[in-house]
């Protein structure tokens, strides 16, 4: 089991752990089936996941979804046999003989040997064995209803330098009802896929010439991104937060001092100068540069808290196989904030942060819960700083959430390398959780950069550094919003808020007059001037998810009115332009989810 999976499993409830074991067991049945049906196939790896399981394999032939019926039939036969799963701990040398000729298993075993550990294998009766740390159900008969979902390519261990393998995804649930519900949700998720909707609504694009993972925002997408960021800024600026702007790259020494160099160097883009041998990197986060703004002049206790925010672009060298639309990119920004304060100011600052986060989440209609992300006690070397300080801050974060009556759960191993985190997990309209906001109490970054202030007693002291994001990355947040609303954004967020539909060319002049009046009121509007029928124009506006359609014909022009239709297909009939403007401006001002 990978470290990531191990952390995930430890954070699950007993019921969730049982489902994880069932999914892991279903993957073993899939692997056993594939070896039987496809001679010459080499198994690579196959873990359980949050949504099901997958199996990576090396096979010269082609296997497509057309083969699923045959594969599922054999899997059902194995499940019906009710074969027991048996765990065995053996020496690495024994395991190497067991998986002789399989270079993928040998690679895992070499790493186990380096750690001076023994190998764990699971037998399915005496028919099949795999290198695996578990967990599993008692027998194949305990595996519930399952379904194979898709086939994809996947580099061995996610590294594009390695061989491309074939991956089969599947899922399993305790009951058919739960499986059917999931499959229905999956179909709805495909309909809401932000990559599909983003293209249909002309929000963003990618270019091979620009490079993978580097999104390009169209005017409509750019407007959406701007509105999301401006909303955050409108809230935080009222609380004494000040925007700064920092360079896109910095010397390696900055990241060495912060600790990011040692932890993230492989995920950072190196910048090469033609005039110096100094080592530079595109910045993957803002916090190290923000420490230098603080350190730029002497600070007094009277200046604290110093609250700075930054929407500057960040860059991370994500593996090509892990890039996915706006969900995972190489170029992104964050609604980043760092507060430098005295220790006695921490509680008030975080209480304010929590209130701001609550305000933003309520606007989008998200339900959410918090995760307290702490250290993995088994891996102290993964974290910088004094363990006593870690313990103090983890207990402090717990008290802050209890005082604010925040529902939360513990997640050992999910902390940043420099601080525990209070992470917000938002639930979208499909019931999926996304980590958005985060708050962190950091004692170690100020220590590493030797930050200080002069206290009222005249002595120099270290500030505490608070890290905060509300929506996190706007790129990823847009992905969540697009899928949450299925592209039908609230009026205040809609790139085009009203579409004017003149019935004939002779109504075009009136349409332009209406458009000018709406734009004067800061309402975003477009005119459909195409030589199309009215039903065609209405259908096009609905496909574009435009909230309001204003139909203008001879009758509307004569009476100086507009005929209002909603994207919900509701026809409200003729109203005055003044009434429409009042309606729209009220909806925008209240950031209402209703039209």
Task: Please provide a written account of the structure.
The chain is an alpha+beta fold and 595 residues long. The chain is built from 19 helices and 29 strands. It has an eight-stranded mixed β-sheet with strand order 10-14-17-24-21-20-18-19, with helices on both faces. A five-stranded mixed β-sheet has the order 26-25-27-28-29, sandwiched between helices. A four-stranded antiparallel β-sheet has the order 1-2-7-6, with helices on one face. Strand 6 (146-155) and strand 7 form a beta hairpin. The model has no long low-confidence stretch (mean pLDDT 93).
Bin the helical content. 25-40%
Q: Can you tell me the number of structural domains?
A: 3
| Largest sheet strand order | 10-14-17-24-21-20-18-19
Q: What profile does the largest beta sheet have?
A: 8 strands, mixed
CATH class of the largest domain, please?
A: Alpha Beta
Radius of gyration: 28 Å
Strand proportion? 15-25%
Shape: globular
Quantity of strands, as a count: 29
């Amino acid at each position: 089991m990978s470290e990531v999976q191990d952390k995930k499993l430890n954070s699950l409830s007993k019921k969730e752990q049982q489902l994880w074991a069932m999914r892991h067991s279903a993957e073993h049945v899939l692997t056993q089936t594939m070896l039987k049906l496809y001679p010459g196939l080499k198994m690579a790896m196959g873990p359980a996941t949050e949504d099901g399981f997958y199996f990576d394999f090396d096979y010269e032939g082609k296997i497509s979804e057309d083969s699923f019926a045959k594969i599922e039939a054999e899997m059902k036969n194995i499940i019906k046999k009710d074969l027991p799963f048996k765990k065995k701990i053996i020496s690495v040398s024994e395991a190497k003989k067991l998986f002789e000729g399989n270079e993928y298993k040998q690679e895992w075993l070499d790493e186990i040997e380096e750690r001076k550990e023994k190998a764990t294998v699971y037998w399915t009766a005496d028919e099949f064995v795999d290198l695996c740390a578990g967990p599993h159900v008692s027998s194949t008969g305990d595996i519930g209803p399952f379904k194979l979902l898709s086939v994809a390519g996947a580099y061995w261990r996610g590294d594009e330098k390695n061989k491309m393998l074939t991956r089969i995804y599947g899922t399993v649930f305790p009951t058919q009802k739960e499986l059917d519900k999931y499959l229905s949700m999956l179909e709805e998720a495909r309909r809401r896929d932000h990559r599909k909707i983003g293209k249909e609504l002309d929000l963003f694009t990618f270019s091979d010439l620009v490079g993978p993972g580097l999104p390009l925002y169209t005017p409509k997408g750019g407007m959406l991104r701007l509105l999301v960021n401006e909303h955050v800024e409108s809230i935080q600026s009222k609380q004494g937060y000040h925007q700064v702007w920092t360079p896109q790259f910095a010397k390696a020494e900055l990241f060495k001092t912060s600790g990011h160099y040692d932890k993230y160097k492989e995920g950072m883009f190196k910048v090469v100068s033609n005039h110096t041998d100094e080592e530079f990197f595109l910045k993957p986060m803002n916090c190290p540069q923000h420490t230098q703004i603080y350190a730029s002049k002497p600070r007094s206790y009277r200046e604290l808290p110093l609250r700075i925010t930054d929407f500057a672009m960040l860059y991370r060298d994500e593996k090509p196989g892990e890039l996915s639309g706006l969900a995972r990119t190489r170029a992104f920004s964050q609604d980043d904030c760092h507060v430098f304060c005295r220790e006695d100011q921490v509680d008030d600052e975080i209480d304010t942060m929590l209130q701001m986060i609550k305000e933003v989440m309520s606007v989008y209609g998200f339900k959410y819960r918090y995760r307290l992300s702490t250290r993995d006690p088994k891996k102290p070397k993964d974290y910088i700083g004094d363990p006593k300080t870690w313990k103090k801050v983890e207990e402090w974060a717990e008290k802050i959430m209890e005082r604010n009556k925040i529902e939360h759960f513990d997640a050992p191993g999910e902390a940043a390398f420099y601080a525990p985190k209070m992470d917000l997990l938002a639930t979208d309209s499909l019931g999926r959780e996304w980590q958005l906001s985060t708050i962190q109490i950091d004692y170690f970054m100020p220590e590493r950069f030797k930050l200080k202030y002069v206290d009222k007693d005249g002595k120099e002291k270290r500030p505490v550094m608070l890290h905060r994001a509300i929506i996190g990355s706007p790129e990823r947040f847009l992905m969540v919003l697009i899928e949450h609303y299925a592209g039908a954004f609230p009026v205040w967020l809609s790139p085009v808020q009203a579409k004017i539909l003149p019935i004939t060319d002779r109504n075009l002049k009136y349409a332009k007059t209406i458009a000018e009046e709406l734009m004067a009121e800061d309402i975003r509007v477009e005119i459909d001037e195409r030589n199309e029928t009215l039903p065609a124009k209405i259908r096009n506006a609905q496909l574009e998810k435009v909230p309001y359609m204003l139909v203008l014909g001879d009758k509307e022009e004569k009476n100086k009115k507009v005929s209002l239709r909603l994207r919900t297909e509701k026809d409200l009939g003729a109203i005055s332009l003044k009434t429409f403007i009042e309606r729209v401006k009220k909806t925008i001002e209240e950031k209402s989810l209703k039209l």
